[in-house]
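Before a colleague's protein record goes any further, I have to sign it off. What it holds is a sequence and that sequence's fold in token form. My question to you is simply how this chain folds and whether the tokens agree. Thanks in advance; the entry in question is below:
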Amino acid sequence: MMAAIADLIQNFDLVQSAQLIAIFLFAAIVKGFLGIGLPAASMAFLTLVMPPTEAIPLLWLSILATNSLQFARAPNKWDIAREYWLFALAIMVCIFVTSMFISDYPTSLLTVAIGVAMVLFSLNLLLGIKLRIGPGRGWHLGFGVLSGTLGGISSIWSPTVAMYLVARDVSKERFIGTTGFLFLAGVLPLGAGQVVAGILTFPMLLKSALALCVVLVGFRIGEMLRDRVSQELFRKAVLTAFLLMGLRLIANGLS
């Protein structure tokens, strides 16, 4: 442990540290306000300053902490768990299996694909086009598998989760609680898979803990902003943020 801390101090880079603080603060404000978007907003900018295999495990503790807080504060937690258990189970299984082989995937291609999906999704709903999605278990299983597969490879599984919930017209508070539950369900399998892949190491956990300190501040700022915004404005903010993050992901993947 002491060796890892000494190595962290020795390799300290002031410029990069300032960049990381700004990135995590912004992404955490998005997460606290929208209930989604921490990995997507972070990855859109982290990949500009470090390789994806370093950026992805750097997010792990922040994803765990923010979604634990988000779900802990949600009303009707057991009701959410009963309704979305199959969705969560599919995410857990798929995210673990795919994350074990994260070093072997073409990350740039996947990043572009996620970005395109986010842009198309947000534009369709901003223009008033509703997807026909039902509440049945088949939909839960399908979206859970898709979310878990994308999440295991990229640590981003919010687009497909939000796609389902927005199309179902869930209320703002229900949206926040359900996304917290479904994101939390995938965190531990994601970490386990990254450990197997060899990218989530003890030195990386130390860096992730430092990032978490910044994220908790930004998350609280975002929560306070959320309480002052109407549901319609909230919905438009979700879709607009997804459009911007999608464009950023496409740019990153093509660069």
Remarks:
- The chain has a mean pLDDT of 84.
- The chain has twelve helices and no strands.
